[in-house]
Amino acid sequence: MERSMDRGTNLAIENAKALGLSTVWDRYEAQLPQCGFGETGLCCRNCMQGPCRISPFEDGPQRGVCGADADVMVARGLMRAVAAGTASHGGHAKHMAHTLLMVAKGQTGDYRITDTEKLKAVAERIGVEVNGASIEDIARGVALKALEEFSEKDSPLIWAGTTITQGRIERFSKLGVIPTGIDSVVSESMHRSTYGVDADPVNLLLGTIKCALADYASCHLATDLADILFGTPSPVKTAANLGVLKTEAVNIALHGHNPLLSEMIVQAAGSDDLKIMAREAGASEGINLVGVCCTGNEVMMRHGIPMATSSVSQESILLTGALDAIVVDYQCIMPALSSIAECLHTEIITTMPIAKISGAMHIEFDEAHALEKAREIIKAGIEAFKKRDPSRVKIPDISSPAVVGFSAEAIINALSTINSEDPLKPLIDNIVEGNIYGVCLFAGCNTVKIPQDRNYIAMIKELAKRNVLILATGCASGAFARHGFMSPEAVDGYAGEGLKTILKAIGESAGLGGPLPLVLHMGSCVDNTRAADVAVAIANKLGTDIDRLPVVASAPEPVTEKALAIGTWAVAAGLPTHVGVVPPVTGSRTVTEVLTSSVKELLGGWFIVEPDPMKAVEALYQALTERRKALGLKL
For position 1, what pLDDT does the model report? Predict the structure, then answer.
């Protein structure tokens, strides 16, 4: 079984075999063959009369005990998955809002407002008074507005309504899918999909879109508040892959999705006394922080902290024998980390009351004492370093340079160096002329069902050659960074002539001393709305809607329920959206037809389900061509 395209990960897997340890790939093989009913969505455990399953053929049951047919069963399952994804992003966003309110009230001295301009811009957008108000009062107003988004109210979610085009608002209103509360729509989705409630598959799918739009609002809210608290990202140089670990340092990995904790650990790691403590423990190079998954993306784009690995290969960093502590918050964290650590010296440190792991050390995060907790975590890492067995240290000498941190604001700033009066004009002009044939946002995860990074690598090479501008978030970013595609050097190797020309022109004009990187890193998976902001700005500038722009999205190796939620709101936004793993919906002809075809007439976007990366490229390129033709642009 081919496991990963990443040499660093493969070396770590070899080390696991030598140590007699299993990895996610071993556990996947042990599960084969997986349940065919589950893979198509034709199973239900929503009541205790089940589990029920429906045969995709005519030789078995065609309805569950309650009478739900394949269409209802699959639609309910999809709705529940999107609700779970929305709850994940919503929980993250709510955590950020509570912390911003604490800062405004002076209840924590460890956090502060870092980007006051972003605070004011968000406040003005959502209707919080700015003129004559103090920063604390503005922050309080924004935080309270944010918290109001979670409960049911009489008006639409402001973080959705103020950040999309008027055309989208009109379409969503017509379909009755505008959410009025993040938590309330998650609750509604769970209610609708439970035993004996909604049994109309199309109505269930409309409810799923409504829930996904609440996910969009959650993502945008979380990104806005993170920028306010920690700074809006701008380009910074860093590196990626397991070679960023250091033999003579206390190596601490930051893993999960919550920047509230990781920002404090970055701050604490710079303390002179902790550096001295690390050196006294024998670590001559002090403290070395590295990132994993989306927490890694957060600290990478704001501080240049190197990215070690991604979600599916998170065990690999322990298998180097050089990791002293891995600090986790929530989401995408494998319980298997604890099993791996039992055979090594690495300390697994959980920090959130809702995300504990048996066998791990727990240091509960507390916003009121955030820096104190961060210092405690680093001290635990230093103590673990003392137990490290040098004979077990096997750090692959593999890393790639990366330039990261392209927020929507950073992209506009770079474009403004070419045209300060109308920053979007250079981008629009190059799209019109065909130097940029279109834009593709890569998002999502890695999965054991596909050799790690295979689809990302194959697709970016072909799309870049065809002059498609590539944006990336989440573990898609990790894949591109580890393989060197987030470097300016990759432009000459892979970009088509038109794309190469514009990336070089903008990079030189922006003072980067060379081209922009081949892939523009836009942050963690919750930051997908950064790319949406760019698309909305272009659409508004042209007086059109997103569903007419030559913009597409792709999740070549998706895993989580969050990916389903993001993909659904991307389709709702009007984007042709590729997924490289067949989602559990194929058991229903109706659901499959709606998601891949009928929804195009309703919203302009649709799902392109295609496991073959080259066929996926053709489908996305065809979608871009279709839109360029409709706009009368050069082909």
Answer: 74
Q: Which two tokens stand for residue 423?
A: 């920053």
The predicted structure's pLDDT at residue 2: 87
Cβ density class 531-549: b for 16+ within 10 Å, e for less? bbbbbbbbbbeeeebbbeb
Q: Buried b / exposed e across 441-472, counting CB within 10 Å, b at 16+? A: bbbbbbbbebbbbbbbbbbbbbbbebbbbbbb
Q: Are strands 347-350 and 287-292 parallel, antiparallel or unpaired?
A: unpaired
pLDDT digits (tens, 9 = 90+) for 365-392: 999 999 999 999 999 999 999 999 999 9
The CA distance from 13 to 8, in Å, is 9
Q: At what angle do helices 408-416 and 424-433 cross, to 10 degrees?
A: 80
Which are the contacts of 628, defined by CB distance < 8 A and separation ≥ 6?
434, 437, 438, 550, 634, 635
Report whether the peptide linkage leading into residue 51 is cis, meaning its omega lies within 30 degrees of zero: yes
Written as six digits, the tokens of 258 are 């919550």
Residue 58 covered by a domain: no
Measured in degrees and rounded to the nearest 5, phi and psi for residue 539 equal: -60, -45
Domain edge (last residue) among 392, 427, 455: 392
Q: CB-based contacts of 213: which residues, under 8 Å, 6+ apart? A: 157, 160, 172, 177, 178, 179, 569, 572
| Full domain range(s) for residue 349 | 242-392
Which 3 state secondary structure label does DSSP give 3? Answer: coil
Q: Is residue 205 part of a domain?
A: yes
Asked whether residue 492 falls in the same domain as residue 622, the answer is: yes
Mark whether 592 and 487 lie in a shared domain.
Answer: yes
Domain CATH for 493 = 3.40.50.2030
Q: Is residue 574 part of a domain?
A: yes
Same-domain status, 375 and 436: no
CA–CA separation, 309 vs 296, rounded Å? Answer: 9
SS3 percent helix, strand, coil of the chain, rounded to 5, is: 55, 10, 35
Would you list the DSSP string of 538-571?
HHHHHTS-GGGSSEEEEESS--SHHHHHHHHHHH
H/E element, 237: strand 236-240
CA angle 449, 453, 454 (to 5 degrees): 75
Report how many domains make up the chain.
Answer: 4
Q: 84: domain CATH number? A: 1.20.1270.30
Q: Which of 269, 263, 250, 225 has its CA nearest to residue 365? A: 263
* Whether the predicted model's global pTM rises above the 0.70 cut: yes
The pLDDT tens digits for 27-55 are: 999 999 999 999 999 999 999 999 999 99
Residues 562, 441 share a domain: yes
* Residues 181/157, Cβ–Cβ less than 8 Å: yes
401: β partners: 239
**83: in domain:** yes
- pLDDT the model gives residue 512: 86
Give the Cβ contact number of residue 20 at 10 Å.
7
Where is the domain boundary, 230, 253, 272? 230
Compute the distance between CA of residue 413 and CA of residue 418 in angstroms, rounded to an integer.
9
Residue 58 has pLDDT above 90, yes or no: no
485 and 461 assigned to the same domain: yes
Q: Say if residue 431 is in the same domain as residue 508.
A: yes
Nearest alpha-carbon partner for 460 in 479, 473, 446, 444: 479
* Domain co-membership, 273 together with 355: yes
Residues 101 and 173 in one domain: yes
